[in-house]
């Protein structure tokens, strides 16, 4: 019997070893496939930018298990890579034209669209046509398309331009029904981030701030579109779209063409025939024209790991403590990347791209300290702001020697808040009680069952006020002002980039290329503009997720603009719920701007979808 057991254990061990060996071979081979740089498989033709998703500063790390579960969500495209691909196409003789397919485009923010628009303008200046096609255009997609030399629309399509603005979700009534008390601690007249938890509507101060911001952003958007299409009757279309549509007999596509917003009304096959004229026909290819796919083009033309003297670090998304995957600004992850690059002693300058509404105080300070350590070694730091660089995002920006933004950037929000939910009302509704003993005034505090004690609340409020004074002091030191002067433009108020420059929160206007040029100037690098990306490489699982995602599917009908508006409303509701959840689950003290526009699409793990879908269904 012992001999049989020994033989059985030996067989099981051999089996396990073989399974392990096969797994190692499989994953080793898969890693080799993922790591291999694909050879170009295209000649001349039309570079097709089929954008089925959102444009972001830093795409989120993909989860292969979510992909296998069918919940990958819309694709995220790197703003940096899209810009570089367009600039490469400008000088590439194989690229005869560029096509923007925006039927499934979600958006990316006003500042990002302006930067992509500049890259499209550069392609057009080289003599190459850029064509855009969509069934329905909304604010972001039209701002991008307006820079094209030909704007096409489906005969059943429309251009629906809403402009900044809209409603916020307020939770006080719901919290009252549930018996939940939101214990709020804040500094700043305009720190409206906490209002959804303590009010049922917008305060006059928050309304004033939001209206000023929306009006400024709207004017910047109009200026950008006007410059791209000066002959379009944009103001009349925005002022009374109903009258414009009625004048065209209810034909929305014809109305947009009459207003000069689009150039051509045609089915997709007509658009593809036009692309065949420009780039050459290919009866075997989808669409019947010679197509250069964006992913393949970027893989060939873009250097994923440049090694230049200017370090480029990205702070994108909510700022959180500790380490975080790509697409979220982990304080330790970003600070360690900066520290490592500085220790290597190869960098001559740093450019910090900030596209964040803020988040955790400690994480924001952790990143700022890493930048200050770089400056202590005579490395100049230039900050480049994206769509949003507010609250904690601006906290980080104060480490810069020079701060650049665009007129459409949302910044400021110099304020601090904290929220502690307590459930004494919920327990009362359920007939439950909570009691205990104390050895000090702070035993069991903060008491989330009976509510924080007055002493605990006073301590939290003192902490908020202390951090606010530090925040104001940091800004004052960086901007060469007194704390009293900064306090007048702080108190949580949000500013558009144009106004921010007037009041001294930024130093100049410009995009990423301008920031790199400024860093080179400060470091006295001459014409040297090469960069090094200070971000961790993609892990094996992330590469596997990209492999599993594969190319975007070509199936599915294109949504019309009205469906796009409905989808936008759902996304806004979704974002409001997830934002509230993030605030309540986040650190007690935060430097975060909730009134700022979102910088990334709502990202939800697969396991969370069921709860959110049920909540949305209940609300609808």
How would you sum up this structure in a few lines?
By secondary structure, the protein is an alpha/beta fold. It is 47% helix and 18% strand.
Please render the helix and strand layout as text.
Layout: H1 2-35, E1 45-50, E2 53-56, H2 64-68, E3 75-78, H3 79-91, E4 95-101, H4 110-125, E5 130-137, H5 139-145, E6 150-159, H6 172-178, E7 181-187, H7 195-198, H8 204-228, H9 234-239, H10 241-247, H11 252-258, E8 264-265, H12 268-279, E9 291-293, H13 294-301, E10 310-316, E11 319-320, E12 329-330, H14 331-343, E13 349-356, E14 358-360, H15 361-376, E15 381-390, H16 392-397, E16 402-405, E17 410-412, E18 416-422, H17 424-430, H18 454-479, H19 483-489, E19 494-496, H20 497-502, E20 508-509, H21 512-522, E21 531-533, H22 540-549, H23 561-585, E22 589-592, H24 609-619
Parallel strand pairs: 1-4, 1-9, 2-3, 4-5, 5-6, 6-8, 10-13, 10-21, 11-12, 13-15, 15-16, 15-17, 16-20
Antiparallel strand pairs: 7-18, 14-22, 17-19, 18-22
Label this structure with key terms:
single chain, 620 residues, alpha/beta, six-stranded parallel β-sheet, 47% helix, globular, disordered C terminus
Descriptive report:
The chain has 620 residues and is α/β, with parallel strands linked by helices. The strands form five sheets. Strands 10, 13, 15, 16, 17, 19, 20 and 21 form an eight-stranded mixed β-sheet that branches. Strands 8-6-5-4-1-9 form a six-stranded parallel β-sheet, with helices on both faces.
């Amino acid at each position: 019997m012992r001999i049989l057991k020994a033989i059985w254990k030996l067989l099981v061990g051999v089996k396990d070893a073989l399974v392990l060996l096969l797994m190692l071979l499989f994953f080793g081979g898969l890693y080799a496939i993922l790591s291999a740089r694909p050879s170009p498989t295209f000649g001349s033709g039309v570079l097709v930018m089929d954008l089925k998703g959102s444009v972001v500063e830093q795409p989120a790390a993909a989860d292969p298990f979510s992909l296998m579960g069918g919940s990958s969500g819309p694709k995220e495209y790197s703003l940096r890579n899209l810009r570089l691909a367009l600039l490469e196409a400008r000088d590439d003789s194989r690229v005869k034209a560029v096509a923007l397919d925006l039927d499934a485009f979600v958006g990316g923010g006003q500042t990002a669209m302006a930067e992509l628009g500049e890259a499209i303008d550069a392609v057009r200046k080289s003599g190459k046509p850029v064509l855009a096609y969509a069934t329905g255009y909304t604010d972001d997609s039209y701002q991008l398309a307006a820079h094209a030399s030909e704007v096409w629309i489906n005969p059943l399509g429309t251009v629906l331009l809403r402009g900044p603005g809209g409603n916020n979700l307020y939770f006080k009534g719901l919290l009252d029904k549930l018996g939940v008390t939101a214990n709020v601690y804040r500094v700043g007249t305009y720190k409206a981030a906490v209002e959804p938890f303590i009010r049922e509507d917008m305060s006059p101060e928050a309304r004033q701030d939001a209206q000023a911001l929306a009006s400024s952003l709207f004017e910047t958007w109009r200026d950008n579109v006007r410059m791209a299409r000066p002959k379009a009757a944009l103001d009349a279309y925005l002022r009374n779209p109903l009258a414009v549509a009625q004048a065209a007999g209810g034909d929305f596509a014809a109305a947009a063409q009459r207003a000069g917003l689009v150039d051509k009304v045609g089915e997709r096959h007509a658009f593809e025939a036009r692309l065949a004229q420009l780039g050459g026909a290919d009866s075997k290819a989808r669409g019947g024209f010679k197509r250069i796919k964006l992913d393949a083009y970027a893989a060939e033309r873009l250097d994923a790991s440049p090694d230049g003297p200017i370090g480029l670090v990205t702070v994108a998304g909510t700022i959180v403590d500790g380490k975080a995957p790509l697409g979220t600004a982990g304080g330790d992850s970003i600070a360690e990347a900066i520290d490592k690059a500085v220790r290597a002693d190869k960098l001559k300058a740093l450019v910090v791209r900030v596209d964040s509404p803020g988040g955790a105080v400690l994480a924001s300070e952790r990143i700022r300290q890493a930048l200050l350590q770089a400056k202590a070694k005579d490395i100049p730091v230039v900050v480049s702001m994206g769509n949003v660089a507010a609250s904690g995002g601006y906290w980080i920006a104060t480490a810069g020697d020079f701060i650049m933004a665009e007129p459409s950037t949302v910044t400021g929000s110099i304020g601090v808040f904290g929220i502690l939910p307590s459930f004494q009302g919920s327990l009362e509704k359920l007939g439950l009680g909570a009691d205990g003993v104390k050895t000090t005034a702070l035993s069991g505090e903060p008491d989330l069952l009976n509510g924080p004690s007055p002493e605990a609340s006073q301590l939290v409020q003192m902490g908020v006020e202390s951090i606010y004074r530090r925040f104001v002091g940091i800004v004052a030191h960086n901007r060469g002002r007194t704390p009293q002067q900064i306090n007048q433009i702080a108190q949580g108020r949000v500013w558009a980039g144009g106004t921010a420059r007037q009041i001294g929160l930024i130093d100049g206007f410009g995009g990423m290329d301008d920031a790199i040029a400024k860093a080179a100037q400060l470091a006295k690098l001459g014409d040297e503009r090469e960069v090094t990306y200070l971000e961790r490489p993609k892990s094996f699982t992330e590469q596997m997720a990209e492999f599993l995602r594969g190319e975007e599917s070509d199936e599915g009908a294109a949504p019309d603009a009205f469906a796009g508006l409905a989808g936008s409303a759902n996304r806004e509701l979704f974002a409001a719920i997830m934002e509230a959840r993030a605030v309540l689950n986040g650190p007690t003290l935060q430097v975060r701007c909730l009134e700022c526009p979102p910088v990334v699409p709502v990202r939800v793990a697969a396991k969370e979808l069921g709860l959110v879908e049920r909540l949305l269904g209940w609300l609808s």
